[in-house]
Amino acid sequence: MTKFTINGREVTVTSEDDTPLLWVVRDELGLIGSKFGCGIAQCGACTMYLDSQPVRACVTPVSDVAGREVTTIEGLSGPVAEAVRGAWQKLDVVQCGYCQSGQMMTAAALLSEIPAPSDSDIDNAMTGNICRCNTYQRIRAAIHSAAETLKT
Fold first, then answer.
1. Is the domain of 7 the same as that of 70?
2. Which residue among 47, 72, 75, 139 sits deepest, i.e. has the most Cβ atoms within 10 Å of its Cβ?
3. What is the rounded average pLDDT of the residues 85-107?
């Protein structure tokens, strides 16, 4: 059994220690916003925060999160999260939507560290997030829009 906090709620799960966090969150806890894309930490669809840092949940064993704080897209909150969500909606970023929870988690982490990112900052931060629909230009524009919203 592993005890940790997810989205502000303490939980104890019974999954084997080597079970990927993504499967525990989706199958045992019923939070399905984070997606399975590749299973090898290359696409970013499964991105969650572990102690406020983005991680690929598809390769993070649940034993690694014992006693720690996990945040999923369902629990992402605060001014940066609201700015990102608003920009995503305003600019109609989503096409199929499958990768977008990971994209938004990564974008929010970037804006938390660099409030006014350059195109280069965005490209570097988002490089590990794959969008099969190729909405990269809209994602970049939304991150810039969210940054502008946060300035005011």
1. yes
2. 47
3. 96
pTM of the model: 0.95
Grade residue 137 by pLDDT with cuts at 50, 70 and 90.
very high
Q: What is the pLDDT of residue 23?
A: 98
Boundary of a domain, candidates 48, 75, 102? 75
DSSP the chain: -EEEEETTEEEEE-S-TTSBHHHIIIIIS---SS--S-SSSSS-TTEEEETTEEEETTS-BGGGGTTSEEE-GGG--SHHHHHHHHHHHHTT--SS-TTHHHHHHHHHHHHHH-SS--HHHHHHHHTT---TT--HHHHHHHHHHHHHHHH-
Q: Read off the tokens for 100.
A: 């977008």
Last residue of a domain, one of 45, 75, 105: 75
Write the CATH number for 71. 3.10.20.30
Residue type, 49: Y
